[in-house]
Amino acid sequence: MIYLDNAATTRPLQEAVEAAEIFLTERYFNPSALYGGGVAVQKEIAAAREEILSRIADAGHFSLIFTSGGTEADNQAIFCGGKRGNVVTTAGEHAAVYQSCLALKNRGVEPRFAPLRPDGSVDEEALLRLVDEKTSLVSVVHVNNETGAVNDIFRLARQVKEKNPRCLFHSDGVQAFGKISVRLTEEIDLYSVSAHKIGGVKGTGALIFRKNLALSPYLYGGGQEGNLRSGTENVFGIAAFGAAARVRFGSLRETGEQILRLRELLFDALDPALYTRLSPREGSPFLLSVSAAGLRGEVLQRLLEGEGVIVGTGSACSSKHPFSRVIQACGYRNDILQGVLRVSFSPDTTQEEAKAAAERMNEAASRLKEKTGK
Amino acid sequence: MKERVIIIRYAEIHLKGKNRGYFERLFSVNLEQSLRGIRHELHRMSGRYLVAEFDEAETDEICNRVSRVFGVHSYSRGLCVGNSLDEIFAAAERIAPNSGSFKVETHRGEKRYPLTSMQISAEIGGRLMEAFPSLRVDVHAPEHVVYLDIRENGKALVFGSFEPGPGGMPVGTSGRGVLLVSGGIDSPVAGYMMAKRGMTVEPLHFHSYPYTNEGAKEKVVSLCRVLSRYTSVDRLTTINVAQIQEEIHKKCAAELNVTLLRRFMFCLAQRYALEIGGQCLLTGESLGQVASQTIEGIASSNAVVSLPVLRPLIGFDKDEIIAVSRQIGTYEISVLPYEDCCTVFLPEHPAIKPKLSFIEEEEGKLDKEALLESAWESRETIAL
C-alpha cells in the first residue's frame, strides 16, 4: 500500500510507540497521585511538554497544555479567546475553527470570515478590513489543510495588533507543526498543534499560548494542566507525542527539502491533460491538491484504493455537501471542485512510491474518463 | 415455577381453521427465535402463550422482543398462580394499585370453578378494598383494571394491562419474497409490511462500487439488521451494477438511465429469487414518488420479469411511509448521508413516461446477457 493521506493522519512512529508502551503496561499511575509512581509519571509529562514546546517557542515566554487533539485546542482558543464583540477568521479554516466560530453566534459574538485567494491563503487586506475595535480574536490557519498554502501569520498578527492592540491572535498550526519551520513570536497568543499528524497517536494535541495571557479553562474538573485543562492526562499519548516531536524536528530541514522534491516529482509525472494543480508551489511541501476536472474525486479515490494507493479527497458523492468548503472558497468552478484529490506526504514516502502513485493516478483518471464520458 | 410470566395472545391465527396448527407452530418457532439468548420457557395455554422462568431483570427486553413478533396481538406482564381464591388474591394484591378507582374483571376458562366470574370479581375486589383503603370501585370508567383469567389447568393468570403487539401473521406462513432494498426510507418499510403479512423477506441490495462507497453499503447492512428483528432473516445479498451503469451511460439515451437500470435490477432480482425459492419481488415503490415510479416506469420494470412484484407502499404518501419507518426504527439510519446511487450517472431530466418500444430499442444497444452474467457473478452474501 502506498499511503498518501498523511494530512489526515500518519502511521505512528516506532519511536513514539516504544516511548509510550511502558505507560500502558508498568507505569500506569495517575500523574496526580502523590506516591512515587505518580510523581515519576508527572515528570515524564513535564519532559514531553518541554520537548514539544521548545521546538517552536521560547519556554520563557510560552506555555503548553495538552489537550485531546487539535480540535479541542482550537475550541479552547476560540471559545476562551473570543468572548465579546466579533471574531475574525478565514473561509479556509479547518472545521474545528470554522464551526466553533459559527457557534459563537449563539453566545452573542459575531463571526466574520475573510475570503481566500485562489491558492487557499487568506486575502490579507480583506481580513484586516474586518478587524475593528470590537474584535476580540483573530484566528488564521497557519498551513491550509487542503491546499497547503502557508499564511504569514506573523505579519498578519503584527498588522492586526497595530489596528487593535487588545485583540488576541490564534493560529491553527496542525498542518505546520513538525512539518515546516515555525518559531512563535510574541504577536502570536495561541497556537494549536496535534500529535497524530507527525507520527504520534490519535487523541493528543496541545494548545500553546503566551505566558501572561489570561486563558480560561474549557474543561473544568480536577485542575490538571495548571487548572486550564482538567481530566487525567493521556500519558501514553503525551509520551508518544514527545518522542514523535523529537524525531520529526531532528531532521526538519532535510525532510522539508526531500519532500518538496517528492511533491514536484509526483506532480510532474501527472498527465496535465487530466490533472490541474490547486496547491501553490511555495506552499507546504507536505500537501499537493490537484483536480481531475469533470471526474469525481471520491470515485477516483476508490479506484486508487483498489490499486493500492490511498489519497484524500475534497469531494463526496453527496447531493447535500458535494464539495469541499475550503476549495470552494478558493473560487473554483464546479467541475474542478468535484474532482479534487489531496495527496499528502510523510518523511517515509519514497520516490518510487511517488512515481508509482502518479502513474496510477493517471491510469485511474483516464479509465474513469473513458467509462463515464460520452 | 416462578410466578412472573408474560402472557402473549395471537392475532389472526384463530381464523385459520384446519391450518391453525401450522400457523401456531410457526408462531412459537418465531417467538423462540426472537427470545434467543435469554433464559426462559415458552408454554402453550389454550389460545395463549406464556413466557416463564426468566430473570426479572430481563422482563423489559423480553417485552421489547415480543412486541416485534408478527402474529402477536397483545401481551401482558402478569403472574401465574394456583387458582384458589387466596392465591389469586395474593397475586392481585401485587398487581393492584394502592389508590384511585379500579375494577376487577374475570374471565373464567375453567367452567367448573365453584364461583362465577362476577362472584370472583366481587370477592377479590372486596378483599383489595380492605387491603387498600384508598381504592374505590368504578365499574364504568376505572383508572385501573385487575384482570383475572382462570384457566383449566388449575392455574390463574393475574395481570394489570394489555400492551398491543404488532399484529399480522407469523413470518414464514406467507411464502418468500426478495426485497429490493436501497439505503432509502421506503424499501425497509415495504419489507416490514410484507413480513407483517407473514412473508419471509430476503433483502437484496444493488450497489455500484466504486461509484458508491462502503458507507452506503454499511448503511444498508444496518437497515437490514433492524429489519431482521422483525423478519428473522439474517442475510443480505448484494450485487454490483457499476458496469451496467457505465454501459447504459455510454450507449443509451440519458433520460432512460434509471429506467434501463431498473430493468436490469429486476432481472437480477428474479434470478436471485428463483435461486433461493422466492415467489415474488418486493419493492418500496410508491406511485409517482419519483420519475421511475410512474405507472409507465413500473410497467417497464414489470415487463422483464414473470414473478409477481408486490409494492405494498404503492398508495402511500411519503409522510405515511416516514411514520412507519420511525415506528420500526429504520428512519434514523435511512436519513444518514450516504447515497446508494452515485449522482454521476443521474440524468438531469429522467423520462417520466418512457415508451416501451423506445426502452427496448435503447436496451438493444447493450449486450444484455453478458452484463447480467457479470453482475450476477459479483454477488456477495453478508451475514446480518
- The beta-strand count of chain A equals 12
* Unreliable segments of 5+ consecutive residues of chain A: none
**Could you describe the largest sheet of chain B, including whether it forms a barrel?**
9 strands, mixed
Q: Proportion of β residues of chain A?
A: 15-25%
Structural class of chain A: alpha/beta
- Give the class of chain B from helix and strand content and strand pairing: alpha/beta
Classified in CATH, the superfamily of the largest domain in chain A is Type I PLP-dependent aspartate aminotransferase-like (Major domain)
Might you state the CATH topology name of the largest domain in chain B?
Rossmann fold
Please report the first level of CATH classification, the CATH class of the largest domain in chain A: Alpha Beta
Number of domains of chain A: 2
Q: Name the chain pair with the biggest interface and residue counts per chain.
A: A-B, 15 and 15 residues
Number of helices of chain A: 12
Percent in strands of chain B = 15-25%
Oligomer type:
heterodimer
Order of helices and strands of chain B, N to C?
Answer: EHEEHEHEHEEEEEHEHEHHEHEHHHHE
Give the total of beta strands of chain B.
15
Plain-language structure description:
The complex is a heterodimer of chains A (374) and B (384). With 374 residues, chain A is of the alpha/beta class. Chain A has two domains: 14-249, Type I PLP-dependent aspartate aminotransferase-like (Major domain) (Aspartate Aminotransferase, domain 2, 3-Layer(aba) Sandwich), CATH 3.40.640; 252-372, Aspartate Aminotransferase, domain 1 (Alpha-Beta Complex). Chain A is 40% helix and 15% strand. Chain A has twelve helices and twelve strands. Chain A has helices at 14-25, 36-56, 70-81, 95-104, 124-130, 153-163, 235-250, 252-269, 297-306, 325-329, 334-337, 351-372, and strands spanning 2-4, 62-67, 86-90, 110-114, 135-139, 168-172, 190-194, 205-210, 276-277, 287-291, 309-313, 340-344. In chain A, the strands form two sheets. A seven-stranded mixed sheet of chain A has the order 2-8-7-6-5-3-4, sandwiched between helices. In chain A, strands 1-11-12-10-9 form a five-stranded mixed sheet, with helices on both faces. The two termini of chain A are 32 Å apart. The mean pLDDT of chain A is 95. Chain B has two domains: 4-164, VC0802-like, CATH 3.30.2130.30; 176-383, 3-Layer(aba) Sandwich (Rossmann fold), CATH 3.40.50.620. Helix content of chain B is 39%, strand content 21%. Chain B contains 13 helices and 15 strands. In chain B, strands 1, 2, 3, 4, 5, 6, 7, 8 and 9 form a nine-stranded mixed sheet that branches. The two termini of chain B are 36 Å apart. Chains A and B meet through helix 9 of A and helix 7 of B.
